[in-house]
Amino acid sequence: MRSWLEVNLKNIEFNLNQIENLTQKKAIPVIKANAYGLGSIEVAKYLSKKKFKLFAVANLQEALEIKNFGLDNKIFIMGNNDKDDLKLAIENGFSITISSWDDIKNLEKLKTSKEVLIHIKIDTGMGRIGFIPEDSDKAIKHINDNKLGTIQGIYSHLSSADENEDEFTLEQINLFKKYEGMKDIPFIHILNSPGIFKYSKYTNTNYVRPGISMYGILLFDTPLKKLLKPVFTLKTKVIYIKTLNNNTFISYGKTAEGEKGDIIATLPIGYADGLDRRFSNGGTVKIHGKKCTIIGRICMDMTMIIIPNNLKNKVGVGTEVEIYGQDINEKAQSIGSIADELMTRINKRVSRKYV
Ligand SMILES: *Cc1c(COP(=O)(O)O)cnc(C)c1O
Questions:
Q1: Residue 308 lies in domain
Q2: Does 210 contact ligand 1 (Cβ within 6 A)?
Q3: 15, 40, 78, 343: which to mutate for ligand 1, most atoms within 8 A of CB?
Q4: End-of-domain residue from the set 182, 198, 219
Q5: How far apart are CA 251 and CA 245, in angstroms?
Q6: Is 277 buried (19+), middle (13-18) or exposed (0-12) by CB count in 10 A?
């Protein structure tokens, strides 16, 4: 195996249970973007046997990909659907998001004998899709009066819960308060991962939508991090190793020069696998828990590292290398990114290994 992503499915379930215990709210696991790169089909297959009532994805295509694994009638599409997707989503039994009067118009035009399961999206400050709170009552009334479907849920999304934005986030939460009392609506939800770990006590919603945290990662520091177990590690193996007998340029563009005596290992992973090219010349990986530095530019399929003195004689062809694990967010920040981006960019060429 060239490079692989190890995924611990049990720990995903463990983390979800921790989240439910912490918040005293039920979880809608978010498995969009191929379950943040970890493999939505495997994650869905595993979790479908558990107690979860609903799973969230971003769009119809993702919903269709995972439909057949025990999740029928349990998939909720959080994004907007155009009128063709809307029809297909309803025919497939998915829960849909209604976030505008255009959506409502599309619903009205649609003829279907299927039950239409609706989550109303409210924009409390994200500035993305969603009814503004002043408009939502009219929309809900219109849907109910015209029997356009069953309002199964009502939700909103926090924009800045992992930043130092208490005041703004609490404003968002307060704007959502008026929906918390709608007892005939089964799913009321606003908290994403940072919301779950920072603002749970300020809401009376009954559901939460954890994404990154169910995969063991949080983008901010909190002592509550220890509630989560690690879920994944991106790994590869040394495929080539040499000791330089001269000063030698390494990789494209001569951006780095190895010195006589340096031990250079080649790894079969590159930016086409999802190893971000910005880690060229300076990014690190781990061998036997010790850091090794990437030298030269990351190539499409390969990457070179310098073997440090403390690993001399401990590395050969076949030695396992950790690309990223629990340090993924720290690494992401060093190149101006976030863990989510690095995770979702792990390419399909990297095999997924489930434990
Ligand atoms: C992605 C997403 C989530 C999950 O967010 P995390 O911060 O990863 O927990 C929740 N809700 C919506 C609407 C999303 O798009």
A1: 232-354
A2: yes
A3: 78
A4: 219
A5: 17
A6: middle
Whose Cα sits closest to atom 4 in ligand 1? 211
Binding site membership of 213 for ligand 1 (Cβ less than 6 Å): yes
Asked whether residue 179 carries a pLDDT value surpassing 70, the answer given is yes
Does residue 119 line the site of ligand 1, with CB under 6 A?
Answer: no
Same domain flag for 146 and 284: no
Tell whether 322 and 212 lie within a shared domain. no
69 pLDDT exceeds 90? no
Please report the pLDDT score of residue 299 as a whole number.
98
What is the number of domains present in the chain? Answer: 2
Q: Is 120 helix (H, G, I), strand (E, B) or coil?
A: strand
Across the chain, the runs of DSSP E, i.e. the strands, are 3-7, 26-27, 55-57, 75-77, 96-98, 117-122, 150-156, 187-189, 207-208, 232-237, 240-243, 248-250, 256-258, 263-267, 284-287, 290-294, 303-306, 320-324, 351-354
CA distance 197 to 217: 12
Is 32 a known active-site residue? yes
The mean pLDDT value for 24-32 works out to: 98
Residue 353 bears catalytic tag? no
Task: Give 76 Cα–ligand 1 centroid separation in angstroms.
Answer: 13
DSSP single-letter state for residue 200: G
- Ligand 1 close to Cβ of residue 192 (< 6 A): yes
The confidence band for 1, taking pLDDT boundaries of 50, 70 and 90, is low
DSSP string of 147-189?
A: T--EEEEEEE--SSTTSS-HHHHHHHHHHHHHHHT-TT-SEEE
Residue nearest to atom 12 of ligand 1 (CA): 157
- Same structural domain for residues 268 and 303? yes
Domain final position from 219, 243, 262: 219
Is 348 among the domain residues?
Answer: yes
Tell me whether residue 2 is in a domain: no
Regarding whether 341 and 261 lie in a shared domain, the answer is yes
